[in-house]
Write a structure and sequence with these properties.
- Helices cover about 45% and strands about 15% of the residues.
- By secondary structure, it is α/β, with parallel strands linked by helices.
- The protein has two domains: about 210 residues, Glycogen Phosphorylase B (Rossmann fold); about 170 residues, Rossmann fold.
- The strands form two sheets. It has a seven-stranded parallel beta sheet with strand order 3-2-1-4-5-6-7, with helices on both faces. Strands 10-9-8-11-12-13 form a six-stranded parallel beta sheet, sandwiched between helices.
- The chain is globular and about 65 Å long.
């Protein structure tokens, strides 16, 4: 197709640098606006000439964040996001863009600026509709009895306005897509483009797979793995409850930072549970290969890449629908979808896996042989196709 002129407006990194690299590889004219240094973006394969960096903003946000961990500080959320939005609007003026793809929370100023010329203004929302996200986290805060990091009233109102201002909202998972429809957003204003994940290093070797199958058939304790922040949002209450119910029979490993909100809860786990803390990316594959089952009982998520990593490693997955579970797991074939806040369902699935070793061994072999990873070239192709469709619908000619 005719190359598109695309601006990616990213208050941070997220997955935007990977998308930019893949779109450039498909021949599009891509400019990245970010608060990261150009040298960092270059490390993701995006030439510095394609990057406009608000360095002062990035340095301030990171510095203020570090200071806030040491001292009680007022929130910088409102003026920080508004500052980035105003900067991005100024940078976008004067160029006729085919697509302005901007991230929610930092885009109200550029979306309402009539001097920004765009064939389609596409808003990236990395999680559920913010009203749904807020409600889930408020409920989880009450259940856990600890204060959680959840959307403020200010950011909720701001994102609602952004949803109205954008021409189209892009979501990353089937579940998050559905939350917008449930909140009254018309389906035609939503585009679903799941993320890609580089999982080449996570595929098990024949020896890894054979070792797992021998272990399963030997009757050794089932090895259950969790990877990610250990937090209430990720289902820590249910994760800990399920582990405590089955520690005597199964071996559990938690890989990831234990957030402050969950430390007291995690401290109640028996001594046999392995808690590694955050590990370098290069060390993760070995952890997946040494496991038998992956458990991720998230309460609210966008597109957790650990699910794709686990599937690439051939692990049956126990997770909820409140993330990318519906997009990655086929219930009963390569894993199971369980309700949120249901530790009993987690235990039931773990018991089935423990009692059905031959079936579990066959399942893991089938996952390895059939899994076709979705990489960033697939994402860029879908983004390109969706952009062309949206421009045509709006009667915009490009090129």
């Amino acid at each position: 197709m005719t190359p598109l002129r695309i601006a990616l407006v990213i208050p941070g990194r997220f997955h935007g640098f990977d998308l930019a690299r893949a779109l450039l590889a498909r021949g599009h004219d891509v400019t990245v606006l970010t608060n990261y240094p150009k040298s960092v973006v270059e490390g993701f394969g995006v030439p510095a000439a394609r990057v406009r960096s608000f360095l002062g903003h990035g340095a301030f946000v990171r510095g203020y964040g570090q200071l806030s961990r040491l001292l009680p500080m007022p929130s910088s959320e409102s003026w920080s996001l508004e500052m980035f939005g105003r900067w991005a609007a100024r940078e976008l003026r004067g160029t006729p863009w085919d697509i302005v793809h901007c991230w929610s929370g930092a885009s109200e100023e550029l979306l309402e600026d009539g001097r920004v010329s765009a064939g389609c203004r596409l808003l990236m929302r990395g999680s559920a509709h913010i009203d749904v996200q807020s409600r889930l986290l408020i409920d989880e805060e009450a259940r856990a009895g600890v204060r959680l990091d959840r959307p403020s009233a200010w950011i909720i109102d701001r994102e609602r306005r952004e949803y109205q201002l954008a021409d189209q909202i892009l979501t990353l998972s089937t579940w998050s897509h559905h939350t917008f429809i449930e909140q009254g957003v018309a389906a035609e204003r939503l585009s679903l483009v799941p993320l890609g994940v580089d999982v080449r290093g996570f595929r098990p070797s024949e020896d890894d797979l054979a070792a797992r199958q021998r272990r399963l058939m030997s009757g050794a304790p089932l090895r259950v793995l969790y990877v990610g922040h250990v937090s209430m949002r990720k289902g820590a209450v249910d994760l800990v409850a399920a582990i405590r119910a089955r520690t005597a029979r199964l071996h559990f490993t938690l890989v990831g930072e234990v957030l402050a909100e969950a430390k007291a809860l995690v401290s109640t786990l028996p001594a046999g549970v392995e808690i590694t803390g955050k590990l370098p990316q290069a060390s993760l594959a070995a952890r997946y290969h040494a496991a038998d089952v992956f458990m991720f009982p998230t309460i609210e998520d966008g597109f957790p890449q650990v699910l794709a990593q686990a599937k690439a490693a051939g692990l049956p997955i126990i997770t909820t629908a409140h993330g990318a579970g519906l997009d990655i797991v086929t219930h009963g074939r390569d894993g199971w979808i369980v309700p949120i806040r249901d530790s009993g369902a987690l235990v039931e699935r773990l018991d089935w896996c423990d009692a059905h070793r031959p079936e579990l061994a066959a399942m893991t072999a089938a996952i390895v042989s059939s899994f076709a990873p979705r990489d960033w070239s697939d994402v860029a192709e879908d983004f390109e196709r969706e952009s062309a469709r949206l421009l045509a619908r709006r009667g915009v000619h490009h090129g």
